[in-house]
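Researcher: Structure prediction, please.
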Amino acid sequence: MTAEADQAVATDKAAPPETRLTTSDRVWREVVSWIWVILAFLFIEGTLAQARVIPSGSMEQTVLVGDHLIVSRFGYDAGIPFTNWHVPLWRNPRRQQIIVFRAPLPGSQDFIKRVIGIPGDHLRIVHGQVFVNGAPLQEPYAYHDVPGYLDSAAENFPARAYGLFSSDNPSWHVDISQHEVNGELVIPPHEYFMMGDNRDDSYDSRYWGFVPRSDVIGTPEVIYMSIKAPDSLAWDPGHIAERFETYFSALIHPKEVRWRRLFHTFHKY
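Model: Predicted structure follows.
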């Protein structure tokens, strides 16, 4: 045997035997990897971003029923997903910014509306024209589709607010009287006045009152999918079967996807 062969045999003897994982080790590694995946999901969902689907037409034509959004929570809110625990963070919404917030009504899903009044603002609406601090608010996004609606109580606010009070929030008629000064609604500290862009079909602050800063979740960033559903019921929470039917229909009928809306981003004002 040569010196080279002797050296190779010696090296083989010195090498440690091949490590073989036991079944319990493999299971433990799988468990740990899934724990990290779950923790990462909870962190992203609870502090950075969420996926949302628009179920109603209150924000048309800006946001359509069936739009799938990525909502940024960064700086606005942090919490533990699937629980009621959350804390507001350092960023505050700006006037005319679109935000997602916890519904101020019991048993309702989260809402998406536009901030019209911020703390300290003096607000009134005359025949559909919004005035903030005495100046008309420029609203290229506002959509009206019902003839004669500009003469309604909703479009002459708070002067004719008596016709708007919602049974969902019976205290609103008391609150509004406490915050009305010289025919204008004064937005209190840490509260926001919200309205939908589809002014003729929006259940918003005119009906049920202010949104506390602590209920703000975040702001939409981008539309990652948009599907024309024959029935908006497909996007309501709990209708899982209808939603999967809608996705399957879009898969075999690509024309049901609003391709031009994909990757649309939102003006931050």
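Model: Residues 43-261 form a domain with the Umud Fragment, subunit A fold (CATH 2.10.109.10).
Researcher: Thanks, that helps.
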